[in-house]
Amino acid sequence: MRKTLQRDKKRKSDLTVIGWREWISLPGLGIDTIKAKVDTGARSSSLHAYDLHRFERESEEWIRFKVHPVQRRTHEVVEAEARIFEYRSVRSSSGKASMRPVIVTNIELLGVSWPVELTLANRDEMGFRMLLGREAFRQRFFVDAGKSYYGGKPPRAKRT
Fold first, then answer.
1. What are the domain boundaries of the chain?
2. Superfamily for 18-152?
3. 1-22 tens-digit pLDDT
4. How far is CA 158 from the centre of its chain?
5. Considering all CA atoms of the chain, what is the largest pairwise distance in Å, rounded to the nearest integer?
6. pTM to 2 decimals?
7. Could you tell me the CA-to-CA distances from 23 to 44, 150, 160 in Å, in that order?
8. SS3 annotation, 50-108
9. Nearest alpha carbon to residue 29 among 118, 100, 101, 98
């Protein structure tokens, strides 16, 4: 039984290494680059979003929201829309639980693109506009907690 389980899981040496923070892209939301904290302690991923408005499109629930993609720069705004996948109770780092809308969108990191579930929450007071939880990179990347930006830093003009 143990050998079967080991065959199904990728070995650490087979995984691409990423740092504890990386520049990523969310092309489906119009975000070219955003700095994300890669957090192995968090299960789910979260994106800074504010001014949330729910609406219906073709009998499905959607959400329109705004993002400040750059830390400490509230004058830069990206407006986005996404279909609501579900609502989820999420416990913050302070221990407070809240219901948050969850969307699914593609993420790009180190030339790889895949869909991730993102909860939408106001992260204005947080150090990072995005938190990449372990479910998003599990069996895909290995995290080097002592390094950052394995994918490099985008040119200053492109950082959002």
1. 18-152
2. Acid Proteases (2.40.70.10)
3. 445 445 445 566 689 999 999 9
4. 18
5. 56
6. 0.84
7. 18, 9, 9
8. EEEEEEEECCEEEEEEEECCCCCCCCCCEEEEEEEEEEEEEECCCCCEEEEEEEEEEEE
9. 118
